[in-house]
Amino acid sequence: MQDWLIRGGTLLDPHSGAKRRADIVVEHGRIAAIGENLSVKTPGIQCYDAHNRLISPGWMDMHVHLREPGFEHKETIASGCRAAAFGGFTAVACQPNTMPPTDSSEVVQAIMKRAAGLPVDVHPIACVSKKREGLELAPLFELAESGAVAFSDDGSPVHNGHLMRRALEYASTLDRVIVNHLEDQTMGTKGHMNEGAVSTRLGIRPVPALSEESMLARDLLLTELTGAYLHVPHISTAASVALVRSAKSKGMNVTTEVCTHHFALTDAAVEESGFSTATKMHPPLRTEADVEAIKRGLQDGTIDAICTDHAPHAAFEKDVEFTEAPFGIIGLETAWGLTGRYIIAEGFLSTAEAIFKLCVAPRQIFRIPVPVIRVGAPANLTIFDAETKWTFEAGHIHSKSSNTPFVGTQLVGRAWAIYNNGQMVTNA
Description:
Blueprint: E1 4-12, E2 19-27, E3 30-35, E4 46-49, E5 54-57, E6 59-64, H1 77-87, E7 89-94, H2 105-115, E8 121-124, H3 140-146, E9 150-151, H4 161-173, E10 177-179, H5 185-188, E11 193-194, H6 197-202, E12 206-207, H7 209-226, E13 230-232, H8 238-249, E14 254-259, H9 261-264, H10 268-272, H11 288-300, E15 305-307, H12 315-318, H13 335-344, H14 351-365, E16 381-391, E17 410-420, E18 423-426
Parallel strand pairs: 1-4, 1-5, 6-7, 7-8, 9-10, 10-13, 11-12, 13-14, 14-15
Antiparallel strand pairs: 1-2, 2-3, 5-16, 16-17, 17-18
Helix pairs in contact: 2-3, 4-7, 7-8, 8-11
């Protein structure tokens, strides 16, 4: 654990948007001093030059797949956290579709033990149902007691309405949210891309927007009935945004997130890329109208958080025909640059508003303490800017997998370093 003097940065408060130039002294993992032109005589202290850079509380990606245990050929906790650190994240919440699934306290504890000591905090999301089969509730109380921050059968929707109602009611007593994978599989089974003009022209079996929207409508009705907490993952259609907006206007306990690729690309990318499997994800890329609705939803507060749904797959799994490839792309390394280019630069959010959706909102939704920049607090920091234009290349990938459509894409804004758990990690 090294001591650091972070000199010349501009502190950004994501709550108020206030900025002030200040040096930060970090000793033994905690903020020891904040002020201008600080001078320290601590032996061996390291200096980081943060001039022309912003410093905020550390960011959190609330929707990632670390693949461990069971699929370490795609990603490991260590490699996923390495990618997160490069992207500016000091915390992630990992999904439970592992092998075995995260449906027992033993698996939750194993994940947390494996992540202990890393510069990125790992918060497990546990299963709603045993084995993610949607037949019987997982032991939610035990999972929460072990450290699970939410419950989801991610990748597998809870089709059984009675089970979903019970899960909402039970989770509410634990002050946890249910995160249901929004897909009525009876409407879009075995589809590969968004249903629309592009899928029709290409002759690819589609995934209709209605498969998301109908499941969301059911979940919102159950949430209204129970008064429980519902978090809507990876929202992707204009109608879904409208449904959440309506629910919030009624005062319902509903929050939602959007993945960066869903405001950066449309389904036209499938055709334009020549059927690149890096454009295949779930939910699929939607239309221009959906993208516009998502941006407006971010702007008016309907959409609470920005995430990635970082979903690594090995090259041998993705390097197949489009219709044979698994869904998912990596996203930790490109999240901020895409947000800067498509959301901040286009005027939908200010830098502070975007940081709120990447730092504060995810933790509030999962009932995790939000880091603060003040003397005496644990140092949990992201150092970044919102203006640097840079081209994302294969060499910037720190994940174990490389399935991304954004290689060669110009991004705006860059994460330069993080400090957390007594460790400084720079993007070098």
